[in-house]
Amino acid sequence: INVTAVTPLFMTALFGTALVCIVVAIGAVIGWNQPGSLWLVAGSLLYLIGIVVVTMIFNVPLNDALAALDPASSNGASLWSRYLNEWVMWNHVRTISGIAALASFWFAAR
């Protein structure tokens, strides 16, 4: 999955959004007294930590481990079971973080 996911469009969307979140968070901290600053920082951190960091620390290594194994081996079957549980859990974390980040940005815009 890491081989097919690493495309210019995907990487631009993932890391371009991360860059925007960093800029937004810095701007919100500088203008901390402005309405919505807390929501902007929260949304940025939710995206950066809940999506980018979780993807790099948990999902990508799980994908790499799965890709390196022979699916017919006993290790392959064991890892697949672990992979399903862990990868899906971390994917839920990413999904919830994305929804929470979106809600935070929405509250900041109100």
Explain what you see.
- The protein has 110 residues and is mostly helical.
- The chain has one domain.
- The chain contains four helices and no strands.
- α2 (8-30) packs antiparallel against α3 (37-68) and α3 packs antiparallel against α4.
How is this structure best summarized?
The protein is mainly alpha-helical. The chain has helices spanning 2-5, 8-30, 37-68, 74-109.
How many domains would you count in the coordinates?
1
The helix-strand sequence is HHHH
Span of the ends, CA to CA: 38 Å
The assigned structural class equals mainly alpha
The poorly predicted ranges are: none
Coarse shape: elongated
Which strand-content bin applies to the residues? under 5%
Oligomer: single chain
Helix segment count? Answer: 4
Largest sheet: none
- Please bin the fraction of helical residues: over 70%
Overall pLDDT confidence:
94
Report the strand count: 0
Our Rg estimate from Cα atoms comes to 17 Å
Short key terms for the protein model shown above:
single chain; mainly alpha; 4 helices; about 110 residues; elongated; about 85% helix
Topology of this structure?
Blueprint: H1 2-5, H2 8-30, H3 37-68, H4 74-109
Helix pairs in contact: 2-3, 3-4
